[in-house]
Amino acid sequence: KFEKIWLIFGVATLLVFLSVVGVSAFYLGNQPPSCLATINPEKVDTTAPFDQPGLKKVKGKEWDYELVFVASAFQYNPGEVEVPLGAKVKVLATTKDVVHGFSVAGTNINMMLEPGYISEFTTTFDKTGEFLILCNEYCGAGHHMMTSKIKVV
Ligand code: CUA
Question: Is the CATH number 2.40.50.840 carried by domain 35-152?
């Protein structure tokens, strides 16, 4: 008798779990995580802020700087950038072609850049040093050469 109760309990739990997965996949399916805004991938070079990649000081916002990256096969623009120590930085990135990764070694920054979407991440660089940016999504023949660098000074 108890086995039967446990069996029903088990099946019910499984059904609840599956429906949670199903519902969240349905609602979140058309918006990838960490991608809030959309952009025309063919017009990245002429769409602000991606028309001027690099570090920019901003005023009246919760962050001090915006750091803009444009990814394309097989590079990031800028290929290297300096960030002042302790600055609160909002990283904004997108791709002009295929899906690229954007992970900063030694930090918890790890984004996926998808054509048509702007990925963003706000962080404070509180350690000096050089931080390598790597592509962690396979994007073609030059994937392993695709890097950039953040220098915290
Ligand atoms: Cu870009 Cu892999």
Answer: no
